[in-house]
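Folding problem:
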Amino acid sequence: MNLGGIERLRDRAVEEIRAAVDAAALESARVKYLGRKGSVTLLMPALKDVPPAERPEVGRALNALKIAVQEALEARKAELQTQSRGAGQPFDHTLPGEWRGLGTIHPISRLIERASEIFRAMGFTVADGPDIETVRNNFDALNTPEDHPSRDPSDTFYLENGDLLRCQTSPVQVRYMEAHPPPARIIAPGRCYRRDTPDATHSANFHQIEGLYVDQQVSLADLKGDLTYFARRLFGAGVALRFRPHFFPFTEPSVEVDASCHVCGGRGCRVCKQSGWIEIAGAGMVHPNVFRAVGYDRHEVVGYAFGMGIERMAMILYGVPDIRLLYENDLRYLTQFGAGV
């Protein structure tokens, strides 16, 4: 092994690599020189037989040989790749790119965003809470008696430790009032869970948006005015609302809120079941027992609360005939809701 032989091997290897016409020829050259039994590879162990005085210079030459071969291989590989991309018709950079399509916001998420935007403009803040709740927050603090049907295991998802999946987002109101002194003005959108049999209008997993307004002077008139404003912002200026007496454990007095059908304008159609009205919310004045449970002085504050089903409003707005269509993840169906509400 001498320096002249190393240089000749380098020149021969680089020339052969540069002459490779395709990837197969280039790989053959790589194996020939840098493979396990390649010419360059086999020279490395022979360095120990070189006289000690010459070994440093020969070692540097061998390293330079290996680097030169590696660089030649990388350079030729890049050249061949460039040539393969440019083969055939020349690239026309003026052609439009391939359209991959853009995702759209799910109609449920879009409606939550829109409802939150309207309520924020009215002075509400958005509050959040866990999906797994205690019986106390979900029922007891909301003045729901132990014999109430909603507490039955056939209606509520109970966990092994005694907690449950919340039936509504009202527990967020309990948590907020316990953590904040009055006044309180919040909305609480989120998932809810009930043991409903899925059909065209029911699902075991759905969404609600709850509202709470507590201060020294709050009346049922405030509730009616706020919900009317919200409905007209969401459904249109021509919508009418009606308030029917009802019963809820956590409000007194309680009402159910109906909106005039936006499809038929109140004349009666398939969507509103010929009644001209569609139920959109349950509401009422906060029961004094709820204030007592969270530590508010029921003699000092009053308030209202309401709860709306997001899916119900989505079905009204978008004309969705079956709630299950919102959860089947069929892009052909969901992408039609790309426009804002």
In short: The CA atoms of residues 1 and 50 lie 7 Å apart. The radius of gyration is 37 Å.
